[in-house]
Queue: 2 jobs
Job 1
Amino acid sequence: MPIVSRYLVALLMATSGITFNAYAASLSVQVTDQTGQPLKDAVVELIAPQGIDVPAAVELNYKMVQQNKSFVPFVLAVPRNAVVDFPNLDATRHHVYSFSPAKTFEIKLYKGRPHAPIIFQNPGLVALGCNIHDSMQGHIYVADSSLVAVTDSKGQLHFSDINTGSYQVKLWHPWQKKHQDRETLKLTDKAVSLRFMLPINLPKPVTKPASYPNYQER
C-alpha cells in the first residue's frame, strides 16, 4: 500500500474512532499428508487475539447437500451462528442426524428441502449421518472465527483482505492421527504462503458418526 494511502487510512481511522489495523494481508495455504500428497477437506481456522478486528463472515447461509447417497461437501466449515440448509437432491428419502455435543439434531425422513434450516450456535465438530444409509458420513466444523476455510482437491485454500497482526492457526481433518497444536502466524501487509503437513489415517467402514475411529472433538 502506498505511503500516502496508508496515511489517509490512518487519518480516517483516527477521526472515526476506529482502532484496529486495517492494512490488508493475504494468506495462501497448502496442506499435505505425511506422504506429501495434497490433502483435501482439511480445515484451517485463523484466530485473532484481542485488539485485531476480524471481518464478519461474508456468508451466513450454507448448504450441506445429500446427493448420490453422500453428503456434499464431505467437510463444511462455518462460523458459529451459521444457518445451514440440508437439501436432498436424491430420489430416495434421507434421515439426517447428529449426536455431537456441539449440535445434536435430526431431520426425519424427507425429500427435497426441509421445512427449516439448522442453526449452529456453538463452536465444535459435528459428525453427520443418515439413519437410512449408514455409509453416509459428513462433517461440519463450526469455528469461533469467521476466518475459516476448507482445502480443495489440490490441498489449497486462500484468505484475502485480512487485517495484519498475529493469529493462531488451527488445523483439523476427519482422518487426522492426533490433535494438532496451534501455531502462531504473523501477517504483514504482504502476501504470505504457508505449507502444513497433517498426518492422517485412512478411515474404516463405520455405521454411526458417534463411533468414528478417528473422530476427535476439539
Job 2
Amino acid sequence: MILLDTIQAAHDRIRAHIHRTPVLTNQTINSLSGADIYFKPENLQKIGAFKARGGLNAVLHLSELERYHGRTLGPVTTHSSGNHAQAVAFAARQVGTTAYIVMPRTAPQVKKDAVRDYGAEIIECEPTLEAREAGVLEVIGRTGATLIHPFDDDRVIAGQATAAKELIEDVGLDQPFDVIMTPVGGGGLLSGTALITHFLSPETLVIAGEPEGAADAVLSFQSGRVEKAPYINTIADGLMTSLSERTLGYIREHVTDVLTVSDSEIVAAMRLVWERMKLVIEPSSAVPLAALLKHNERFAGQKMGIILSGGNVDLGRLPF
C-alpha cells in the first residue's frame, strides 16, 4: 500500500539525484484551449523523462536494504521501450551496479544509445510484451538480476508520484487544480499522480490521455479488469503497454476518466508545444494536451496541470 509517507520517503530518497523541474505556462496555448494550464516539463528531467524518478526510487531503495544487511546490490534488470530502460540504467550507474535491459528491436535508436551510454547491456527482443517478459526471465536465470518492473511495482509508482507532488506544491496548494492530466501506458505515472493528488489535493480530478492506437486503459477502466487494446498502431511508442492489476486498482479508485486521441491529434499537440513553448517533447508526452484540446469545452475556464512526460524523440524521424 502506498501512503503519503511512502511518497514523501521516495522524494527524500531521490531528491539529490533528480531535477525539481519547473512549472511553465504559455498564453497562446491557454487561448487556444480556453483553460489555465500549468505544464510540468519532465522532458527536462534527468534521462529526459519522468521515469528517472521511479527507477531511482526502486534501485536506491533496494540498495538501502542490501546495505542494511551488509551486502552490495547485485545486478538489476527490466524491460522497456526506452524511458524506463534509461531510468534503470542511470540508477544502476548511480549505485555502482550492472543493469541488463531488454528492449524491443523497434525501440527508438536515441533511447538505445542512451541506455548504452549509461553502461547497461541491452538484450533486444521482438516488440511484444510476451517477448519482453521472456527476455527478462532469461536474464534473471542467467545473472540472478533483480527485476525493476516498469510500472507494476509500488516503489516505481511512489517515485513517479513525486512529479505531481512537486507540481501541486509549487502552484496547486493555495488555489488547487481543477484537473491534473497525464498520459497512460502501463499506468505507473497515472497511478502515482492519482495517489498523491488524492493525498494533497483531494478536490482535484485526475484524467488520463491515451492513444486510440493503444487503447487498453480506457477499456480496462470501464470494465474493471485488465484488457488488451483492440490493435496497436500509434506514434506514441511509450504508451503501448497494458495496465497491470496493481495500476488498474489505483486508477479505478482515484482516476476520473481516460480520454483517447488520434495520432494526428497527438502530432498537432506535439508540434504546438515545440513551436510555442520551444520544448522538445516526444509523442507520448503530447497525449494529455491533445486530449485537453480535443475536449476544450469540457475544461474551459479551469485550472489544469499537465505532466509532459518526456522528450526522448528521434530527431531524425520527426512527424512534422
